[in-house]
Design a protein that fits this description.
Blueprint (H helix, E strand, L loop, with lengths): L3 H24 L3 H30 L24 H8 L6 H5 L2 E3 L15 E4 L5 E5 L2 E5 L3 E5 L6 H5 L4 E6 L6 H6 L15 H4 E11 L3 H14 L2 E11 L18 E9 L22 E4 L12 H4 L9 E4 L9 E4 L23
Parallel strand pairs: 1-2, 5-12, 6-7, 6-11, 8-10, 11-12
Antiparallel strand pairs: 2-5, 3-4, 7-9, 8-9
Length: 363
């Protein structure tokens, strides 16, 4: 039998032991952290050297400011009715599949067409004009770039893209990767990596198609893309590029060696190889092959998780006549086809400052 003093000492000993045990455990790094640090050590020198020269060029061209200004790196959260898009896609899934999906039809927006005549969920919608178009869709105003096409749907309703019989030379993916920050913020719904295998890339890609996938700094996502996803699609890994995020004053948005958040994201490039000889139909220019490593440096958009446009980056490597597709897009690009359940989100008029330049065009 314990006396009160003995019991108190025993409880104190147990509490001290648990605290020390938890403290030691807290210092131990898990495998993901170890892998992340190992990858960081491999790319750190490339980032430091590449970023330095590009930042110096940015100052020379007056793209960057010489002194720190009041910068805010938090993502801009414009609450607009366009946040309904994902919910509308969910509602559309309950509707019967119509002729749009069966025939893979494409609808062109005309000047006298009303939004009620358009089926955004089962048909590919396009603006084939040489200028941007301000249109009303589902009661809201959106600005569509010239020669753009889009399909508003989720992963269960991609059939219109497949049935359109278009085969793309370049496909860019920006998957909504699972992470704790997104889960807490509820900005958008994430997708388990295993679900990405449902995307019919082999039915959308032309022979030799260049595939580019954005990956967060979680090494398990990078391994999944390189070791599972790309082999599942018959895609050969070609290169890994890095997007380095800086401020308007040329500094990293996070310390380069921060143990929590790194100021860069990864872009994995691969080539779709349905047959062994894909070189004859590759969209990549023979005179300018893709480099194994490339640094893209930019000031990130204030819109959450918005990636830099790759159209200009790829221009020196890809044939100008290449057909380009972006998957999980949230904005449109001139000359590109885009798909996602929020594909026109950032085309909402509230995200633009508009100036009239003539009776028939807007900028």
């Amino acid at each position: 039998m314990f006396t009160f003093l003995q019991l108190e000492k025993k409880m104190h000993h147990n509490i001290t032991y648990l605290f020390q045990k938890r403290k030691r455990k807290h210092k131990e790094r898990n495998q993901g952290e170890i892998d992340s640090e190992s990858y960081h050590e491999k790319v750190r020198k490339i980032i430091l050297e590449g970023t330095k020269s590009l930042v110096e060029e940015g100052f020379t061209c007056d793209y960057l400011y010489g002194a720190r200004v009041n910068e805010c790196h938090e993502s801009l959260d414009l609450t607009t009715v366009d946040s309904r898009l994902a919910d509308l896609c969910e509602m559309a899934k309950k509707l019967p599949i119509g002729n749009g999906i069966e025939q893979g039809s494409v609808q062109t927006i005309t000047e006298d067409q009303t939004s009620t005549e358009l089926d955004l969920f089962e048909c590919i919608t396009q603006n084939n004009m040489d200028c941007a178009r301000l249109v009303t869709l589902m009661g809201e105003k959106y600005l569509l770039p010239p020669h753009c096409s889009f399909l508003l749907s989720d992963i269960s309703r991609m059939q219109p893209l497949v049935n359109s019989n278009e085969r793309y030379d370049v496909i860019v993916l920006d998957p909504p990767w699972e992470n704790k920050s997104v889960k807490r913020s509820k900005r958008y719904s994430s997708l388990p990596p295993s679900q990405l295998k449902r995307i019919p890339v082999p039915e959308l890609a032309a022979q030799g198609c260049l595939l580019l996938t954005w990956v967060t700094n979680r090494q398990k996502h990078l391994r999944f893309v390189k070791e599972e996803l790309y082999p599942h699609w018959s895609v050969e890994v070609l290169a890994e590029w890095l997007w380095v995020k800086i401020t308007n004053s040329g500094e990293y948005v996070f310390p380069i060696d921060s143990p929590h958040k790194k100021p860069y994201e990864i872009l994995v490039l691969g080539r779709y190889c349905k047959t062994k000889d894909a070189s004859s139909s590759s969209p990549v220019k023979d005179e300018n092959p893709l480099p194994d490593h490339k640094i893209i440096v930019s000031v990130p958009s204030t819109l959450h998780s918005q990636k830099p446009s790759l159209a200009d980056v790829l221009e020196e490597y890809v044939d100008p006549e290449a057909k380009c597709l972006e998957l999980f897009a949230r904005n449109l690009q001139p000359g590109w086809t885009s798909w996602g359940n929020e594909v026109i989100k950032f085309q909402h008029l509230s995200y633009f400052n508009m100036e009239e330049t003539g009776p028939d065009s807007l900028t």
